[in-house]
Amino acid sequence: MLLYLAFKNIISKKSSFVIILFIAFAVMLLVVTNAVFDSTEQGVQETFVSSFTGDIVIRPEYKSPLSLFGDETPVTGALTELPNLIPYDEIHEYLSGQPFVSDLVPQVSGMAQLSSDEESAKCYMFGVPAEKYLSLMKSISILEGKPWSDGEKGIMLSKKYAEKMQAKVGDTLQFEISEGFSSRIRAVPLTAVYDYSVENSVLEKIVLTNPETVRAIMDMSDLSSSESEDFSDEMEKMLSDFDIESFFSDAADINEGVQTEEITVSGEELAALENSYTNSSSWNFLICRTNEPKKVKKIIKSLNKTFKEKDWPVEAVNWRSSAGSTAFYLYILRLILNIGIVIILGAGFIVVNNTLVINVLDRIREIGTMRAIGANKRYITKECASETMIMAFIAGILGCILGVIGSHVVSALHITFSNAFIVQLFGGTVLHTAVSFPNLLGAFSLSLFIGLIAWIYPLLNAIRVNPVEAMQGAK
Fold first, then answer.
1. What would the mean pLDDT of 93-122 be, rounded to a whole number?
2. 3-state SS class at 243
3. 70 forms bridges with which residues in the sheet?
4. Rounded to whole angstroms, how far apart are CA atoms 146 and 170?
5. In 3-state terms, the chain is what percent helix, strand and coil (to 5)?
6. pLDDT above 70 as % of the chain
7. pLDDT at position 420, please?
8. N or C: more exposed end of the chain, with fewer CB within 10 A?
9. Torsion angle, CA of 195/197/201/204, rounded to 10 degrees?
């Protein structure tokens, strides 16, 4: 009976429809905006994860925020000399044994001047094992040439970067860093040109090259792997019996002949000797892909707990932290827009509240009559709360429906962008929307929250009405 009376009162007043439409509009705006940014977030994440960040990045602890591009101190961030992952071998072994890690690849980073015969520009160098890196980054496809093999020099450029540098496969490019009056220069052949599946200006900063070149141009110490190599008994005996003093004891006598003994070393032993020096432990980052992408937050929390227990000066971060300032600015922009919507809803709340107060004042005679015939304050409270919540419920449902329709309309319009910043902001050249259940639930809950809060002040006015004065028409 109470709900029926409340519903009847809502229908009988035009102001009720104004309130419902206003709340519905605010809910629709929230749904559409979050649908756009949910799609943007998902698009940017998929682009970054499959192009250069992976799902999780292990980085050294540092005094400033670090990304794969270097020091990411807000506003003034620049690539500086990066610390190494320590202890790299133990970290790599631990991650390789985790069931949630599907693959991982190490990386060294640096920034230098890249020059061709025609052009010169600053670039971010990602020193990586080529084949391993390409297998991890699924959005990269080779258009021309082939990646360098481990131990070889090489550089790979994106299609746009190669066009900018007017370089083609087979050309020799130069990395250069100037320090005071001296410079370090490394010449590297262009072995391949690639393309990304999604266009994003952040990706155009990246130049892929062999890690030895990055270490050389950045003047990094190249630490060999701490892994032990197994040699034959003959090799171990030869090394243990080797006496360096006796080896040089006759060095002063240049006229006497030197008697030598031929030592045979197998191919496997020679490879082992070479690998003991070429398997470097000088890496800045470990990029990981996981087979449980929905549990990334939980995995990162668990990894950081383990790192702390093992006293390793490293930390695990998600794609956003490793992508640097660009992803951070996108997050801030979304936050600002959502705050703007909340401000609009706050203004709407004031309008709704004032409208409800007017409704109550217009019904003072009715409320006074109800009080005079026996309706107590609890009954009046329930009726006011019921009316407001019914309006909020209807407005929430209507707003969600309009939001879904509006989101599909936005997608159907195929709005395209050409500005580089906007393309970067929305994760592509075409605007898409993605309505999710959490989005709808949050918008609907906000509508109910508005209704729940908005009836309190009008209720205080209603229960203060004196029945006698109200029946006489007093305001």
1. 91
2. coil
3. 67
4. 11
5. 55, 20, 30
6. 74
7. 62
8. N
9. -20
User: In one letter, which amino acid is 291?
Assistant: N
Q: Provide the mean pLDDT of the chain.
A: 78
Residues in CB range of 240: below 8 A, 6 or more apart: none
Tokens standing for 195?
A: 């393309």
Task: Tokens for 252, please give them.
Answer: 């002063």
pLDDT at 357: 67
> Does the structure show a pLDDT above 50 at 373?
yes
Query: What is the average pLDDT across 47-62?
Result: 91
pLDDT of residue 253: 44
As a whole number of angstroms, the distance between CA 40 and CA 330 comes to 9
- If DSSP codes are grouped into helix, strand and coil, which group holds residue 254? coil
Q: How far apart are CA 19 and CA 388, in angstroms?
A: 9
Q: How far apart are CA 377 and CA 83, in angstroms?
A: 70
Q: Dump pLDDT digits (tens) for 206-258.
A: 999 999 999 989 888 665 554 444 555 555 555 555 554 554 455 444 444 43
| 338 or 51, which is more confident | 51
pLDDT for position 9: 72
Q: Which of 393, 384, 404, 392 is nearest to 457 (CA)?
A: 384
Torsion of CA 315, 317, 321, 322, to 10 degrees: 80
Tokens of 336: 């600002």
Beta carbons of 110 and 218 less than 8 angstroms apart: yes
Which sign does the torsion angle of CA 297, 303, 309, 313 carry? negative
Distance between CA atoms of residues 43 and 48, nearest Å: 9
Phi-psi sector, 439: left (phi>0), alpha (psi -120 to 50), beta: alpha
Residue with tokens 């496997």: 268
Rounded Cα distance, 458 and 152, in Å: 78
The C-alpha atoms of residue 161 and residue 158 are separated, in whole angstroms, by 5
| Geometric angle at alpha carbon 180, from 174 and 184, rounded to 5° | 25
* Higher-confidence position of 109 and 452: 109
